[in-house]
Design a protein that fits this description.
Order of helices and strands: EHEEHHEEEEHEEEEHEHEEEHEEEHHHH
CATH superfamily of one domain: FAD/NAD(P)-binding domain
Structural class: alpha/beta
Helix content: 25-40%
Radius of gyration: 21 Å
Mean pLDDT: 90
CATH class of one domain: Alpha Beta
Largest sheet: 8 strands, mixed
Low-confidence stretches: none
Bound molecules: flavin-adenine dinucleotide
Strand content: 15-25%
Length: 375
């Protein structure tokens, strides 16, 4: 039987970050992912600069042979309404392709892995686990995204919890379409639903277009996406035929104590499995990486004793970082009636758009960052 100290279920940004850190600390790590990499992940692929800091990743190194789109401006508004363009005059975000980004991180972490092998069974054995009937491990790290089997093991009621439901399409523009495209690559567009329960985006990364829509309210998602696309096409933002190109996916935004239980005896959850995406923007890649770093710290400190109480510092770190409750007023999280009524008005204000929507909700200008030196 194969064995390891820690088995990481899932090789997305959370799994590869945690696995790499644990291996650097001298632990014997095995990572399983149900897919062969490079693999597609439904995502807009927008990341903020702290992602590079947290991963100690050099943007120019990453850029070699991969798409890394600099973002300097945003076009924002209400679907159907007039847009506001906010300019920063410097790079404030980036666009990546998840098939490239996740593959790069997984290769970089250099951890023993079995790809194309889903975690299917986890049976308690002594103080550890037997996984898939063939691997003995002392600790399970659930990094398998929203539908992670380790999350189910720790009590997640997958499919019956509040979640963001989203649809996205990403495709290469043909050379002719590229010449005709009116979407500036450094200016992604974000258009909020009139009820403020979600937003759609149109995002160009090199010669790839990414278009999608996410909502806290899962009903009529397809209809909202269709209306958004009609709006984009009507205003000349998009001419490509999108039929059959959309993929759907779900994930949870962080809800503190109202969210998923992320620790148990011999098991913990990180990234989307734990439900840590930012509630304001739906950004999940940075919190996935941060949660992986915090989990790795706790695991190393636990020195092989992985009882629930020894893993509690990780749960405390999440609360310390992201808060204990879900009281925040957000566009993705159901907003107050006040915001809903005034949404269209506020989003036509250049000051509100720059300082609240973009700087605070999307770019975290008011938040200290975890970085690789601290962790
Ligand atoms: C449409 C959409 C758009 C988004 N856009 C953005 C964005 O622009 N920016 C941003 O920051 N966030 C975005 N997010 C959120 C972001 O994609 C997630 O928060 C992020 O991918 C979480 O990373 P993760 O490593 O936790 O999980 P994932 O990236 O989902 O990785 C999980 C891995 O686990 C594997 N897996 C699943 N089941 C098993 C199993 N049983 N056994 C083994 N492996 C398994 C999967 O194959 C996958 O490789 C978006 C989400 C959606 C749905």
């Amino acid at each position: 039987m194969e064995s390891c100290d820690v088995l990481v279920a899932g090789g997305g940004p959370a799994g590869s970050t945690c696995a790499g850190r644990l291996q650097q600390a001298g632990l014997d790590v095995l990572l399983l992912d149900s897919q062969i990499f490079p693999r597609q992940k439904p995502c807009a692929g927008w990341i903020t600069p702290p992602v590079f800091d947290a991963l100690a990743l050099d943007a120019d190194t990453y850029r070699q042979g991969r798409v890394l789109q600099d973002i300097e401006n945003f076009r924002t508004g209400i679907i159907g309404g007039a847009p506001v363009v906010t300019r920063y005059g410097t790079t404030v975000s980036y666009g990546i392709r998840r098939c490239e980004f996740d593959h790069y991180l997984l290769q970089r972490c250099c951890v023993r892995r079995s790809l194309g092998e889903p975690v299917t069974t986890m049976v308690r054995h002594d103080s550890g686990w037997i996984v898939n009937g063939r691997i003995r491990t002392r600790l399970l790290v659930g990094a398998g995204g929203h539908f992670c089997p380790v999350a189910r093991l720790l009590g997640a009621r997958i499919g019956r919890e509040a979640a963001v439901a989203a649809q996205v399409a990403e495709f290469a523009l043909s050379p002719a379409e590229e010449n005709m495209s009116s979407v500036p690559a450094d200016t992604p567009a974000l258009f909020f639903c009139r009820d403020m329960k979600g937003y759609g985006w149109l995002f160009r990364k090199g010669n790839y277009i990414n278009v999608g829509l996410g909502r806290m309210d899962t009903t009529h998602l397809v209809q909202h996406t269709r209306e958004f696309c009609t709006f984009l096409q009507h205003h000349g933002y998009l001419s490509a035929d999108l039929d059959g190109r959309f993929q759907g996916h779900a994930y949870r935004v962080y809800q503190g104590q109202g969210g998923r239980n992320c620790i148990g005896d011999g098991a913990l959850l990180i990234g989307d499995a734990a439900g840590v995406a930012h509630s304001h923007s739906g950004e999940g890649i940075l919190p996935a990486i941060e949660s992986a770093m915090m989990a790795a710290d706790t695991i190393v400190s636990a020195k092989g004793d992985y009882r629930r109480e020894k893993l509690k510092p990780y749960a405390d770190s999440l609360t310390g970082r992201y808060g204990a409750g879900s009281e925040k007023v957000t566009p993705l999280h159901v907003p107050s009636l006040f915001l809903r009524m005034l949404g269209a008005r506020l989003l036509s204000s250049k000051g509100f758009t720059r300082h609240i929507v973009l700087n605070r909700w999307f770019l975290h200008a008011n938040q200290n960052m975890l970085n690789s030196k601290q962790h």
